[in-house]
């Protein structure tokens, strides 16, 4: 037991062990794979103080070019330890190795490189004006660092989502105290090692492990000496963090939950739409905020489309991360599996027909101690059913027919969430017309999770506050200031 890794916090350039430790579990087989040092309030305060101090030190004198070079050096460091990061993501989450490679770690590198390049070309605004007395004024806008950013990230895409926030925060000259999910501490710890090796001044980046309420998450979000909070996680957690931020009127950026819809028109490229809906429903075992949980299919192709989806769902390879051809692994934890499974039960109680899956698989091997669940397709629920309104966050979607655009668009929009949607059609005018009426932050047409990192990303309603991506991140992680000079 003693040779299991101990994951430590990283505060003011030093690795810190704490008294309280919590277990890190492999969701493939329920095995203990390590212990993690939980940051108490004092450790979080020390991290915030170190960040505040570093913000006034050499870090603030760096030029944009120097900061850009450091971000590229961090990206280089992730690249050099690519397989370590893949192993860390796979160990913590049980995801397919090929996904950790092509999505998680690749995006961790891309996030740092994108913002490293963007800050070198980011423009600002300048206006010339004349005062009533005829005096000329030059008015220009500049972005100054906000100060210390609290970054709180979830377990579903651990490195992708942590770096999506840390990269622009550092790029804009801020200091960071990051609190990754208690479920996925490993890749965040590796990132701290890479940042330390890159030579950022002590205190610029700090990492505190722990939970939410009564632990590091709450200690960070309630700390009066952070200047802004960027959070990705459940909507109800966002609400709790917003209450904490309100105390000190802190700026917040929230990427929250979703109940995303796919709309498949009869004129869609049938095979592409089937593949697209499969990918958007079952990627990462459905544990992506952008995943589809509601599929609306135009009636003339409904039966054929559902039959095709059912066949593909039954053919999904549910296995270990390194299994050949594996499509999906376990859920993140037995607790989350219990939640998703309870929705499968609820769906039956609400009158759903389970077309595929609907239960916990039995493998007859060590995976039976893991958090596996069957990929599932259900049908027959009214739009008012809880399973149609609440985020399940598992490998499950509901299929329903529709007859007209006028009918389906209000059904898609009838949700407390507004994060993402996907539309499958070959009619160009219909694509633009329908996409323009869907109330989500992101609409894909004949695609899903296709990302240009320069575009704004975020949700409406319960799906979030603010946008990050490209210049939207530069703006959020800055104090935007206007300087007006009489000339
Ligand atoms: N919109 C997006 O871009 C996006 C991306 C990924 C995940 N998500 C959402 O995240 C959820 C799944 O992730 P999760 O289960 O880790 O979410 P979660 O809200 O349970 O936890 C997210 C993070 O917040 C911390 N936390 C929890 N309670 C807190 C509190 N009271 N104060 C401070 N910190 C607290 C957790 O420790 C964790 O680090 C899903 O709802 C999913 O839709 C959204
Ligand atoms: N924020 C992003 C993805 C979010 C995925 C949610 O699970 C991104 O691609 O930048």
From TrEMBL:
Cross-referenced Pfam families: Aldedh
GO MF annotations, alphabetized: oxidoreductase activity, acting on the aldehyde or oxo group of donors, NAD or NADP as acceptor
UniProt keywords, alphabetically: NAD, Oxidoreductase
Matches recorded under InterPro entries: Ald_DH/histidinol_DH, Ald_DH_C, Ald_DH_CS_CYS, Ald_DH_CS_GLU, Ald_DH_N, Aldehyde_DH_dom, OHmuconic_semiald_DH
Active site: 255
Gene3D superfamilies the UniProt entry points to: Aldehyde Dehydrogenase, Chain A, domain 1 (3.40.605.10), Aldehyde Dehydrogenase, Chain A, domain 2 (3.40.309.10)
UniProt superkingdom: Bacteria
Name of this protein: 2-hydroxymuconic semialdehyde dehydrogenase
EC number, UniProt record: 1.2.1.85
Matching CDD domains: ALDH_F8_HMSADH
Domain Aldehyde dehydrogenase as annotated: residue spans: 15-483
Family the entry assigns: Belongs to the aldehyde dehydrogenase family.
């Amino acid at each position: 037991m003693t040779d299991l890794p101990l994951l430590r916090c990283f505060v003011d350039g030093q690795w810190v062990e704490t008294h309280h430790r919590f277990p890190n579990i492999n969701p493939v087989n329920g095995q203990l794979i390590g212990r993690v040092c939980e940051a108490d309030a004092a450790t979080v305060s020390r991290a915030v103080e170190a960040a505040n101090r570093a913000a006034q030190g050499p870090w603030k004198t760096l030029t944009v070019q120097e900061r850009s070079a450091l971000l590229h050096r961090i990206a280089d460091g992730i690249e050099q330890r690519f397989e370590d990061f893949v192993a860390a993501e796979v160990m913590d989450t049980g995801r397919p190795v090929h996904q950790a490679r092509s999505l998680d770690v690749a995006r961790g590198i891309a996030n740092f490189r994108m913002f490293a390049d963007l800050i070198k070309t980011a423009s600002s605004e300048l206006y010339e004006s004349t005062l009533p007395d005829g005096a000329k004024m030059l008015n220009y806008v500049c972005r100054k660092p906000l100060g210390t950013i609290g970054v709180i990230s979830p377990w579903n895409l651990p490195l992708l989502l942590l770096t999506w926030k840390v990269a622009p925060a550092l790029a804009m000259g801020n200091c960071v105290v990051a609190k990754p999910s208690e479920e996925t501490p490993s890749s965040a710890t590796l990132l701290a090692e890479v940042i330390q090796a890159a030579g950022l001044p002590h205190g610029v980046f700090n990492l505190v492990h722990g939970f939410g309420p009564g632990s590091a998450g709450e200690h960070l979000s309630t700390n009066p000496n952070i200047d802004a909070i960027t959070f990705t996680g459940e909507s109800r957690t966002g609400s709790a963090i917003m209450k904490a931020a309100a105390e000190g009127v802190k700026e917040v950026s929230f990427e929250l939950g979703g109940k995303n819809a796919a709309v498949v028109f009869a004129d869609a490229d049938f095979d592409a739409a089937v593949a697209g809906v499969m990918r958007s429903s079952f990627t990462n075992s459905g544990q992506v905020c952008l995943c589809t949980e509601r599929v609306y299919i135009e009636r003339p192709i409904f039966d054929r489309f559902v039959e095709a989806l059912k066949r593909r769902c039954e053919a999904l390879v549910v296995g270990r991360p390194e299994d050949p051809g594996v499509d999906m692994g376990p859920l993140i934890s037995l607790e989350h599996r219990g939640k998703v499974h309870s929705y499968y039960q609820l769906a039956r109680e609400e009158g759903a027909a389970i077309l595929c899956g609907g239960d916990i698989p039995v493998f007859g091997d060590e995976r039976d101690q893991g958090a596996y669940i069957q990929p599932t397709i259900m049908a027959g629920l009214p739009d008012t059913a809880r399973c149609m309104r609440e985020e399940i966050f598992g490998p499950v979607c509901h299929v329903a027919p529709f007859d007209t655009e006028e009918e389906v668009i209000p059904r898609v929009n009838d949700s407390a969430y507004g994060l993402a949607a996907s539309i499958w059609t070959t009619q160009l005018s219909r694509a633009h017309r329908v996409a323009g009426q869907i109330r989500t932050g992101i609409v894909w047409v004949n695609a899903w999770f296709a990302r240009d990192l320069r575009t704004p990303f975020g949700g409406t309603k319960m799906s979030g506050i603010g946008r990050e991506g490209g210049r939207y991140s530069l703006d959020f992680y800055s104090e935007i200031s206007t300087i007006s000079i009489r000339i």
